[in-house]
């Protein structure tokens, strides 16, 4: 019997991780885990409790009671926090503003990395996992590791278009703020694993990026 295939997909905000990961998982018949949605869901739950997200000690004390469940069907991924479906709420501006500081707290990371490893261990025939630290921390033995990048302008204009033509300059500022916090935090910063393949998606279509990663996965499986 072959080992479950794990595809680790990391990269900065808006580089195309979610859309690419879902496409790869659908093409290969694998599960899909959006770890960013888990950090967003914890942030939503802490805000609901009135926790000051800039107070690391308060965040650390509150996070142990937060329950997160992730549905891993790439056609219909789900995210539930404290029993509430928060798929819409976690995309709010308020959650976006608070998620990066929350993600710097070591107890938050330990709590979620444990959950992520449980989901990965249960996934047959395999799973595509996307985030910031999948290749470097969560699944260091993944058979395929990809690090997606794209020019900040491309990332901002794609995200602004997705949001129905919102202000591209404001979107760019928000993406760059998250990049800075995510890549400079002390614990598990956003980083390319030494053995990851870097793909610059700036001038590639989504289908082209998916095709490149499917080819890497098929090579790893053969
Ligand atoms: N190669 C591509 N070409 C054009 N558009 C793309 C490409 N990849 C992704 N997109 C589009 O860019 C936008 C951002 O992609 P996506 O949400 O997948 O990025 P992300 O890295 O998961 O972002 P975040 O880290 O903020 O969750 C989406 O509208 C998506 O459809
Ligand atoms: N493995 C991960 C995934 C996400 N985060 C943090 C940092 C991001 O700004 C935030 C939201 O992620 P997104 O939904 O935009 O992919 O969550 C992290 O620290 N580690």
Automatic annotation (TrEMBL):
EC number: 2.7.4.25
UniProt xrefs under InterPro entries: Cytidylate_kin, Cytidylate_kinase_dom, P-loop_NTPase
EC category: transferase
Catalysed reaction equations from the record: dCMP + ATP = dCDP + ADP; CMP + ATP = CDP + ADP
Protein name: Cytidylate kinase
Domain of life per record: Bacteria
Encoding gene (name): cmk
Subcellular location: Cytoplasm
Domain Cytidylate kinase: 7-218
Record-listed ATP binding positions: 11-19
GO-annotated molecular function: kinase activity
Family to which the UniProt record says this protein belongs: Belongs to the cytidylate kinase family. Type 1 subfamily.
UniProt KW keywords: ATP-binding, Cytoplasm, Kinase, Nucleotide-binding, Transferase
């Amino acid at each position: 019997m072959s080992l479950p295939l794990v595809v680790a997909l990391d990269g900065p905000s808006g580089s195309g991780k979610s859309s690419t990961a879902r496409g790869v998982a659908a093409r290969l018949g694998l599960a899909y885990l959006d770890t960013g949605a888990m950090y967003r869901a914890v942030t939503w739950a802490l805000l609901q409790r009135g926790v000051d997200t800039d107070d690391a000690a308060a965040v650390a004390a509150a996070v142990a009671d937060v329950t997160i469940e992730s549905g891993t069907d790439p056609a219909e991924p789900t995210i539930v926090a404290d029993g509430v479906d928060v798929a819409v709420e976690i995309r709010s501006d308020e959650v976006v503003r608070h998620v990066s500081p929350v993600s710097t707290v070591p107890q938050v990371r330990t709590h979620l990395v444990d959950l992520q490893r449980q989901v990965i261990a249960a996934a047959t025939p395999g799973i595509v996992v996307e985030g910031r630290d999948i290749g470097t921390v969560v699944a260091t033995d993944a058979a395929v590791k990809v690090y997606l990048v794209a020019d900040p302008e491309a990332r901002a204009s794609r995200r602004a278009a997705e949001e129905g033509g919102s202000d591209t300059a404001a979107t760019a500022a928000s993406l760059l703020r998250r990049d800075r916090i995510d890549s400079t935090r002390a614990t598990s910063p956003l980083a390319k694993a030494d053995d990851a393949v870097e793909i610059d998606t700036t001038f590639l279509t989504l289908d082209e990026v998916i095709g490149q990663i499917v080819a890497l996965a098929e090579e790893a499986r053969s």
